[in-house]
């Protein structure tokens, strides 16, 4: 009986000695990364910072039309999630060849430009 009490006491002491993790403390982190793959032409990056309940970050990616999409975002308990989406550069559309005649005579592609789009809710 005494050896069982000694083993049980040692187990309790070992459990009490384990580090305590407070899951209610505010989160704090920062990260960033980038990709530039010449084989797949995948070009993108992201960064984000969190300080407690407030998050701020951005990401970019190269679109198939040659433009770059930039998304800048913030989030918080009172403001919610807000993002501003920007398209940077001029889009290059490939030539369309087909059975139908179109406004683009000769099958030449065109260019276009898209400005800033706002996502989120304002209070």
Write a brief structural summary:
The chain is mainly beta and 123 residues long. It contains 1 helix and 8 strands. The strands form 2 sheets. A 6-stranded antiparallel β-sheet has the order 1-2-3-4-5-8, with no helix packed on it. A two-stranded antiparallel ribbon has the order 6-7.
Describe this structure in words.
This protein has 123 residues and is mainly beta. It has one helix and eight strands. It has one helix spanning 2-17, and strands at residues 28-37, 42-51, 54-62, 68-76, 80-88, 91-92, 111-112, 116-120. A six-stranded antiparallel sheet has the order 1-2-3-4-5-8, with no helix packed on it. Strands 6-7 form a two-stranded antiparallel sheet. The longest helix has 16 residues, at 2-17.
Keywords:
two-stranded antiparallel sheet, elongated, 123 residues, 46% strand, 6-stranded antiparallel β-sheet, mainly beta, 13% helix
Task: Draw up the topology in text.
Layout: H1 2-17, E1 28-37, E2 42-51, E3 54-62, E4 68-76, E5 80-88, E6 91-92, E7 111-112, E8 116-120
How many strands in all? 8
- Listing every helix as H and every strand as E from the N terminus to the C terminus, the arrangement reads HEEEEEEEE
Q: What class would the helix/strand composition place it in? A: mainly beta
Distance N to C terminus: 68 Å
> What is the helical fraction, as a range of percent?
10-25%
Rough outline:
elongated
Strand content: over 45%
């Amino acid at each position: 009986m005494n050896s069982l009490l000694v083993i049980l006491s040692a187990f309790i002491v070992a459990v009490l000695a384990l580090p305590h993790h407070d899951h209610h403390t505010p989160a704090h982190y920062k990260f960033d990364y980038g990709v530039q793959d010449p084989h797949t032409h995948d070009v993108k990056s992201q960064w984000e910072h969190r300080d407690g309940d407030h998050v701020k970050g951005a990401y970019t990616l190269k679109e198939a039309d040659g433009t770059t999409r930039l998304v800048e975002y913030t989030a918080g308990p009172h403001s919610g999630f807000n993002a501003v989406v920007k398209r940077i550069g001029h889009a290059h559309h490939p030539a369309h060849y087909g059975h139908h005649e179109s406004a683009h005579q000769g099958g030449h592609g065109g260019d276009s430009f898209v400005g800033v789009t706002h996502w989120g809710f304002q209070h």
